[in-house]
Amino acid sequence: MSRGEGPGYLPEQAQIDVYGNGGFRFADMSHRGSILCLPSGIHAWTAVEGQPLKPDDFDKVIAEAERIEFLLVGTGLDIKPLSAELKALFRSHGMNSDPMSTGAAVRTYNIMLSEKRPVAAAFIAV
Asked: Is 104 helix (H, G, I), strand (E, B) or coil?
C-alpha cells in the first residue's frame, strides 16, 4: 500500500473490501498487517493481536482527533476491552471509542463511512 506519504499509506478514506489472512483489501490494494483508517487516509499500524494496546499506539489517531467523533477498535478475533487509560485518552479528545472484534469493526466502519459520519478505525489484522 502506498500512494503519497511512502509505503503503508493511502491518502484517502476507503471502505474495507476484505479482511483476514493477516491483512486487508481496499481501494484495489492489499496490505498485510494492521491498519489505521483515519480522515487523512489509511495507514499501516504496528499493533498485533495478543499484544496490549498502549496510548502511543494511537498517536496518529490523536493527531486527527478534531475530525473524529467515533473510534472503532478492531481488537482481533475476539473482543478485548480497552484499558481505562485508553478510554480516558480518547474521551479527553472528544472521541467515543468502541472495541469489538475486527470483523465487526470492519462492518461497522463501512456502514458509518457510507453514512459520511466522522469515524475512524484501528484494525488489528486477523
From this structure: helix
**Tens-place pLDDT, residues 22-76:** 999 999 999 999 999 999 999 999 999 999 999 999 999 999 999 999 999 999 9
Give the type of residue at 38: L
Rounded-to-5 percentages of helix, strand, coil across the chain: 25, 30, 40
Question: For residues 121 and 71, is the Cβ–Cβ distance under 8 A?
Answer: yes
d(CA 124, CA 22): 9
CATH architecture of 9-123: 3-Layer(aba) Sandwich (3.40)
Q: Where are the domains of the chain?
A: 9-123
Strands of the sheet with 70-74, listed across from one edge: 9-10, 41-45, 34-38, 119-123, 70-74, 96-100
